[in-house]
Amino acid sequence: MNPKPTLLSFREKFGYGLGDTASNIFFQFVNVFLLYYYTDVLGLAPAAAGTLFIVARLWDAVSDPMMGALSDRTQTRFGKYRPYLLWMALPFGIVGYLVFAHPPLGPQSKLAYAYATYIGLMTIYTAINVPYSALMGVMTPSAEERTSLATFRFIGAFSGTLLISLSVRPLVRQLGGGDEALGFKLTMGLLSVVAVVMFLITFATTRERVRPMKNPDTSVARDLAVQFRNRPWIVMVLAAILTLSNVAVRGAVTNHFYKYYAGDDGTPVLGFLDRTSLILSTGALAFIGGIFFTGTLGRRLGKRNALMLMTLLNGLTFLAFFFIPREAFGIMLAVNAVGNLFAGPTPALVWAIYTDVADYGEWRFGRRTTGLTFSGAMFAQKIGLMIGGGVSGWLLGSFGFIANEVQDDHAILGIRLMYSVIPGLLGIANALVLLAYPLDGALAARIESELARRREAG
Q1: Cβ neighbours for 201, distance < 8 A, ≥ 6 positions apart
Q2: What pLDDT, on a 0 to 100 scale, did the predictor assign at position 458?
Q3: Which of 26, 186, 357, 410 could crosslink 175 through cysteines, CB 3.0-4.6 Å?
Q4: How far is residue 284's CA from residue 294's CA, in Å, rounded to a whole number?
């Protein structure tokens, strides 16, 4: 007879979800606005900004697995992963603010400052988000509850996305009074405070319950060797690289696309929202709407098949953007909303799958490496962001983009390709990679049941 699964309260699920609201305040701010900030506000060359993204992400090749191994070996009265939410919340807010602080520096000093603050942000992001992600794997042993928890997580995540979509451009205008540098600085300062408070609420409302079976061999090298024999993990890592390359390329040129192609001059078109804010906010609302279909799709199609289908449909909507004329903003609004609706269930499905992957590693190899599993996932995402962010800066430069000038046809073509065709093809490639994921619903249920009996016996 299987032990009764741990059912999580609404309070705990909601509190956990707030942690990804905090994370996505920074993630979305950086993904959508940082390249624009570097090129059009700070005055960095696009290629220099692209190289910065590459260098910063290379550091993650070291910091992500280090953080995963460290958190797996942490022992405190608060658990393994949860205490990092308390320890790192304030540094997370401070460094995020410094990225957009815009001190009065010369051109070379500005570039050095950008390197120092962005690499610092990526380091702190790793230190709080690897444990935060791994926490989902130890709050309950129930695969069904984890899927529910992942849904709450990504409602929280895209509430953060919606907050950024609605507020950043209007706040930059209002707080800056026409000075974009001051506007970005004050806006990020305000949002940093919000993010810190949310992480502290997540710490206060969650608990760790799953305890791995004791293993006297604590070798990090052995954990890494086991990880690279975990086929489901390898497939998901490849998929994550493609997913975040897709997100990074499109996100990096969103402001450029609407400013230089669709003619957004910052004039409000609906309330306080200009065209870019409107496209971002309606997309975020559609994404949140899509999240609510996660459970239904997962049950009817299986997590892998649902993820594959939604990823494919999302990629096709991106491709469609290439054929929309610049004056057809209404069509852009509709196609973007549909694409985000398709994408809505995908993050929750991905992270629910990663908890299954961690279970598979413990079941197959006798070692539970939850932190390493999730740190590997985050490393793959950052590699995707590195590729996408670096390529975006380099491509902008190669197509002849010049900040705050009227762009020629070649530069406009480059921006359009980066916003539509390149992310669309990456989305389709991601769906194809997922064909190799081997865990179906029956095997995942068998693994959950057998691990529950092992823990009860051990």
Answers
A1: 15, 18
A2: 61
A3: 186
A4: 16
Q: Is residue 84 part of a domain?
A: yes
- Give domain status of residue 232, yes or no: yes
Among 434, 435, 451, 433, residue whose Cα is nearest residue 443 = 451
Residue 213 has pLDDT above 70, yes or no: no
Q: In a 10 Å sphere around its CB, with 0-12 CB exposed, 13-18 middle and 19+ buried, how is residue 89 labelled? A: buried
Determine how many CB atoms are found less than 10 A away from the CB of residue 320. 17
Q: Given pLDDT bands bounded at 50, 70 and 90, which one contains residue 353?
A: confident
CA distances from 282 to 161, 175, 273, 310, 315 (A): 11, 23, 11, 19, 18
Mean pLDDT across 363-377: 78
pLDDT tens for each residue of 414-438: 999 999 999 999 999 999 999 999 8
pLDDT at 2: 45
Structural domain boundaries enclosing 430:
10-209+220-457
Structural tokens at position 402: 């010049």
Flag whether 174 is in a domain.
yes
DSSP 290-357: HHTTHHHHHHHH-HHHHHHHHHHHHHHHHHHGGGS-TT-HHHHHHHHHHHHHHHTTHHHHHHHHHHHH
Whether residue 59 contacts residue 383, with contact meaning beta carbons closer than 8 Å, is answered with: no
Q: What is the pLDDT of residue 428?
A: 95
Write out pLDDT tens, residues 183-198: 999 999 999 999 999 9
DSSP state of 266: S
Within-domain flag for 3: no
Which single residue is written with the structure tokens 């919340």?
89
The residue behind tokens 């069509």 is 331
For residue 76, what are the β-bridge partners? 79
**C-alpha span between 280 and 278 (Å, rounded):** 5
Return the pLDDT at 1.
39
* β partners of residue 273: 270
pLDDT of residue 217: 54
Instruction: Look up the CATH number of the domain holding residue 303.
Output: 1.20.1250.20
* Chain position carrying tokens 């230190």: 127
DSSP string, 57-95: HHHHHHHHHHHHHHHHT--BTTBSSTHHHHHHHHHHHHH
- Better pLDDT: 84 or 384: 84
What is the number of domains present in the chain?
Answer: 1
pLDDT at 449 over 90: no
Look up residue 269 and give its two tokens: 């078109």
Is the pLDDT at 3 greater than 60? The verdict is: no
